[in-house]
Design goal:
Strand content: 15-25%
Order of helices and strands: EEEHEEHEEEHHEHEHEHEEEHHEE
Strand order of the largest sheet: 4-1-9-10-11-12-13-14
Number of strands: 16
Number of domains: 1
Mean pLDDT: 89
Number of helices: 9
Largest sheet: 8 strands, mixed
Helix content: 25-40%
Structural class: alpha/beta
Shape: globular
CATH superfamily: Ribokinase
CATH topology: UDP-N-acetylmuramoyl-L-alanine:D-glutamate ligase
Length: 301
């Protein structure tokens, strides 16, 4: 069993159309997905002290994720307003809480902790600047980073020398040849493996020598929230933990990740464990600070 640590922020995804808030945040998701994929998983990030923040912490604990190096910050938790269109998640507004407005700074104890893992995972929403990424790279463990859609060539050139597994959403990057040219350029800047995801059209992977094509696994989609995170995480868990080599290792990991992401598309929210609420969203917060929870929030199930 490999050991994986996810480093980044957490939030609540608010589905106001069904009066439910679901745990979210890319690296909260990948910490739980790593556990579901068979890894010994940990999360390193900051929780808000309010009801939402403590619910997020509890969901990670429920899934057996180690939180040894997490901190709790006094204040209110972030949330993202979300809708579903034919099962596809769409964000339409966020409010940053203390956990999203505080940059993660890795001290010596954090780095000594991370060094004990076989894999570290983070992303462009993690509140880690390039100085912190360099610290992780110096530990000489495989490091995966998801740029999602939030990238420019300048940003890629800055971060990619410190990344082993690079992921990015390529749905808006043109046709296959344009995507392959982009993956080649990114590989030249440092990563060992570069993966461009294309939603239902699957993935293109480049390892510096060959291109590989992954297929999306057919499934009945309930909610695509977390689909990208689940692919990224499960690919890395499979690849790092594999005893195979070369082409066989890559193909096995692509297949595993595709099946795993399809499974996650059958879950409400990114990881389930939603909180229901009553009334209008604004009713959840006090008029004084706009954040304080009312007691009628209740866990699902």
């Amino acid at each position: 069993m490999i050991r994986s640590v996810s480093i980044g922020f957490n939030t609540m995804d608010v589905y106001d159309f069904v009066k439910t808030m679901y745990p979210g945040g890319n690296q909260l998701n990948t910490a739980i997905y790593a556990k579901w994929a068979g890894a010994d998983a940990a999360y390193l990030g900051y929780f808000a002290s309010d009801y939402r923040g403590q619910h997020l912490k509890g969901v990670l604990e429920k899934n057996g994720v180690d939180l040894t190096r997490c901190k709790t910050l006094e204040g209110q938790c972030s949330y993202a307003m979300t809708t579903l269109v034919d099962g596809n998640r769409t964000f339409h507004g966020t409010r940053k809480g203390v956990n999203a407005m505080t940059e993660i700074v890795l001290d010596d104890e954090d780095l000594a902790y991370i060094k004990n893992f076989d894999l570290a995972i983070s992303d462009c929403y993690s509140n880690l600047d390039v100085a912190e990424i360099k610290k992780i790279k110096a530990l000489n463990i495989p490091f995966a980073y998801d740029f999602s859609e939030e990238f420019t060539e300048d940003l890629l050139k800055e971060f990619c020398p410190y990344v082993d597994f690079c992921f990015l959403s390529c749905s808006q990057q043109g046709g296959e040849e344009e995507i392959k040219a982009l993956l080649r350029r990114i590989h030249s800047w440092g990563p060992k493996i570069v993966v461009g995801t294309r939603g239902a059209d699957g993935q293109i992977l480049f390892d510096g020598e060959d291109f590989y094509y992954g297929k999306a696994t057919p499934t009945e989609v309930v909610d695509t929230m977390g689909a990208g995170d689940s692919f990224t995480c499960s690919f890395c868990v499979s690849y790092v933990g594999s005893e195979k080599t070369g082409k066989e290792r890559i193909e096995e990991s692509l297949q595993f990740a595709s099946r795993f992401a399809a499974r996650v598309c059958g879950v409400h929210g990114a990881v389930g464990d939603g909180l229901t609420y009553e009334g209008e969203l604004e009713d959840l917060y006090s008029p004084d600070d706009g954040y304080v929870y009312k007691p009628y929030l209740k866990p699902l199930g």
